[in-house]
Amino acid sequence: MKKIKIKTQLGTRPALTSALTGVQFLDEYWLQSEQKEFCRDNGLSSWGNKAVVADRIVTFLDMGEILTPKKPKIKGLVDSDNRIQNSTLVVNYKSDSKTREYFKKRIGSHFKFTVSMHDHRKKQLQNGVKLTYDNMAIEWESEYERRKNPGYQTKISASCEFNQFARDYADKRKKGGLENIKVSMMQMWKMAKQCKGPTTLKNLLDTKAWT
After folding, report:
1. Spatial separation of the C-alpha atoms in residues 154 and 157, rounded to whole Å
2. What is the DSSP letter of 14?
3. How many other C-beta atoms can be found within 10 angstroms of the C-beta atom of residue 195?
4. Which is more confident, 20 or 152?
5. Alpha helices (H) in the chain, listed in sequence order
6. Dihedral sign for Cα atoms in the order 129, 134, 137, 143
7. What span, in angstroms and rounded, lies between the C-alpha atoms of 158 and 131?
8. Mean of the pLDDT values across residues 144-156?
9. Strand partners, 6
10. What is the model's pLDDT at position 37?
11. Which SS3 state, helix, strand or coil, does residue 129 take?
């Protein structure tokens, strides 16, 4: 079977400077370290995840406005300031060492904070549910069991672009969609970072970088 080779027709990525427009910025892939360096050089706050910082940079490039982020403030004591027990209500939650210690004692040493766990907590509280830490532990254990199913996929945060790319690559190869492509996943990831538009496998496959 003929193997397909890839040649880069992606051009040279511009430098991340204040001369770019917001659209030009969004057309490229930038490392988080590059975004933070740009913020420091231009007096912007680098606080927040990659997507939040990107929005701040776009506003600056297009409007010249320096946004001051409003960091979430927890009023009063956080739950972990007191000893967390199974019956403790989730009020002012914080993913700190004391909270981790509770869950490891309640669940086991294999515990780790997950996106699904936090999404469940937020959804329950938004719906007015009185949630206890034991309820959260039960949900975590349920998710842990779901993970054992080969077909189950955990939720990936929007800022974790590489993780999503790796999952899409594995799914595509499993279904036989990449058998003619003679490059590794890491090589494809490097190319995806140079493509215009989102850093996704679909966007890479839709480019003209294939021969």
Report:
1. 10
2. P
3. 22
4. 20
5. 22-26, 32-41, 50-63, 97-107, 115-126, 133-146, 161-174, 185-192, 201-205
6. negative
7. 26
8. 78
9. 210
10. 92
11. coil
